[in-house]
Amino acid sequence: MSLPLDTIGMAEPDLDAAAVIQSRAFFDDPLFEFLFPDATVRRAQLPWIMRVGIAAGLQVGHVHTTRSAMLGHAVWLPPGGTHLSNDRLAEAGFVDAEQHMDEKAIARFGTFMEQSSAIHDRLLPDPYQGRGIGSALMQPTLARADEARLSCYLETVKERNVVYYRKHGFEVAEEQAVAGDGPPVWMMIRQPR
Question: Can you give the pTM of this predicted structure?
Fold first, then answer.
C-alpha cells in the first residue's frame, strides 16, 4: 500500500542528508558495485558521489523530496542540461576524485559517463520521448526490411527499452556487460515478418 506523500523542491542545505539517503538506497545498485567493488569503500564513498549528482541536479534542474521528512528524493535534469561537463562536475563537487576513488574506479566512472552520454544522445536527442515518434520513425525501415526479408539489429542498455523494442518485433539475442563487468547491454534482433 503506497502512502500519499506531499513533495517539495529540495534546497541546497539538504544536500548532505539527501546524499546519505541516496547512498543507502543505491548501495547494492550494480553500477555502484561496479564502480566500488569493495563494500567498505562503497559505503564510505557513496555519500560523496551521490552529493555530487544531487548538487548537479540542483544546479541545472530540480530535486524533489518529501515534505514532512526527507524519505527520499528524485533528481531531474531538463532537456539540454543532462551533459555533465568537467566544469559542471567540478562545480557540483567532483574535485579531488583521487581522494575518493582509486585509479580503476575513476577509469570505470569515466567509461560509464562516456558510454551513458553517447547512449543518452542516441536514445533521447530531444524532449519528445513517449509520443510515438520513435515508433513512427522505425516503421518505414522495418517495413523495408520485411519486404527484403532482412533481419534488424539494435543494442540497448536500458532494461525498460527491451519491452519497448519487443513491441516492434525485436527479441534479445544476447546480453553482455559493458567493459566485461559493467552494467548489462541487450543485443536484440528482429526477424523479418
Answer: 0.58
